[in-house]
Specification:
Elements: E1 10-21, E2 24-30, E3 33-35, E4 39-43, H1 50-57, E5 65-70, E6 73-75, H2 79-82, E7 86-89, H3 101-110, H4 120-130, H5 146-157, E8 164-167, H6 176-188, E9 195-200, H7 203-209, E10 212-217, E11 220-226, H8 227-232, E12 236-242, H9 245-254, E13 272-277, H10 285-294, E14 301-306, H11 309-317
Parallel strand pairs: 4-9, 4-10, 7-8, 8-9
Antiparallel strand pairs: 1-2, 1-3, 1-5, 5-6, 10-11, 12-13, 12-14
The protein binds adenosine-5'-triphosphate.
């Protein structure tokens, strides 16, 4: 797809990446292409291999096979050089409940040997500001809502300027308000040019937050591209409501389409719905209407139905998705 040709290159690139647990492949030969500056939604049902992939990308687990490049550098060979450029939220950092949000971030920053102590206070303040927690900087973390804790985890990832942010299911377990806050925040993270790689099992969430999507199913990457590319790859069906079903079918066939058998009948018994999949490039709905009219078909109704992204994903993964959340 176009991802590989995107300006700025790829922030994450894998080639035939695999990871097994015993005989079982949790990640099965995936080729990720995450363009720089994108918000890439790593979408898949529970157990499809998202967390395992993320752990391997971040050097928290070893791959069995395959090549990985993060920010253009080979992993895990160049891990030490790459990690300071990458902010991550995986399984959430452990916070001290009786310390404030700001004090927790300062402690976590102390553990980062690349972080400058001289600028710590300023950086902690800026990170809290960025995630909308400046007002709660002095509040003890046990009084934070789940959404606030999750945003504090993201603030931790933002303590230094990052080229890449990797977030594993950041809205998991949050109430609707917390979910909205985190989604809004994720969208804002690319300001300044960073790339965001975010996993989710919720299609609606990925549609709201992301520019690109990769779909996982049972360890395999079954689709990848921009949201629009995936929408366009779905099927489109035209339906004609007409009393001249036989002629309509012949006109559709004349355009190289394969008309389906007339379905049911319209308001009047003499009408039938003739349909066809739009499977030929260059045959657009307007071409079809013009041909029907020119062929003497009395067109009483005409509709174009595109399969939804949800239908597309269900057909790709063979299973239902949680679509709301
Ligand atoms: N440490 C492990 N040992 C054995 N099997 C594992 C281990 N970690 C993950 N798996 C298995 O690998 C598969 C992929 O799991 P993974 O956690 O990567 O999926 P996921 O898409 O992130 O799902 P979830 O959202 O539920 O975490 C699952 O079948 C899981 O049971």
């Amino acid at each position: 797809m176009t991802a590989a040709a995107a300006p700025g290159g790829l922030a994450i690139e894998t080639h035939r990446l695999s990871k097994h647990f015993g005989q079982r492949a949790a990640v099965d030969g995936i080729d990720l292409a995450v363009p720089r500056g994108s918000v890439y939604g790593f979408l898949g049902p529970n157990g499809s291999g998202k967390t395992t992939t993320i752990r391997v990308l971040l050097g928290l687990a070893a791959a069995d096979h395959g090549d990985i490049r993060v920010l253009g550098r080979e992993m895990p060979r160049e891990l030490a050089g790459v990690l300071p450029e990458v902010g991550a939220l995986v399984e959430g950092p452990a916070f001290y409940p009786f310390l404030s949000g700001a004090a927790n971030l300062s402690r976590l920053d102390t553990a980062d040997r690349h972080a400058s102590p001289a600028s710590r206070r300023r950086r902690v303040g800026e990170a809290l500001e960025r995630v909308g927690l400046a007002h709660a900087a002095g509040k003890k973390v046990h009084a934070y809502s789940l959404g606030m804790k999750q945003r504090l985890g993201i603030a931790n990832a933002l303590l230094r300027p990052r080229e890449l942010l990797v977030l594993d299911e950041p809205s998991n377990g949050l109430d609707p308000q917390g979910t909205r806050e985190v989604r809004h925040l994720v969208r804002s993270l690319t300001e300044g040019g960073a790339t965001v790689f975010v996993s989710s099992h919720l299609l609606a969430e990925v549609e709201q937050m992301c520019t690109h999507v990769g779909v996982m199913s049972a360890g395999r990457l079954v689709a990848q591209g921009t949201l629009n590319e995936l929408r366009a790859a779905g099927r489109t069906r035209v339906q004609v409501l007409t009393p001249d079903a036989g002629t309509a079918s012949r006109v559709l066939a004349g355009l190289g389409l394969e008309p389906g058998l007339p379905e049911g009948s319209g308001a009047r018994p003499a009408e039938a719905l003739v349909w066809a999949e739009l499977a030929r490039p260059g045959v657009e709905p307007e071409t079809i209407v013009a041909a029907l009219v020119a062929g003497g078909v009395r067109v009483r109704g005409f509709s174009v139905e595109r399969s939804s992204l949800e239908e597309r994903f269900v057909s790709l993964t063979g299973e239902g998705f949680d679509v709301v959340g």
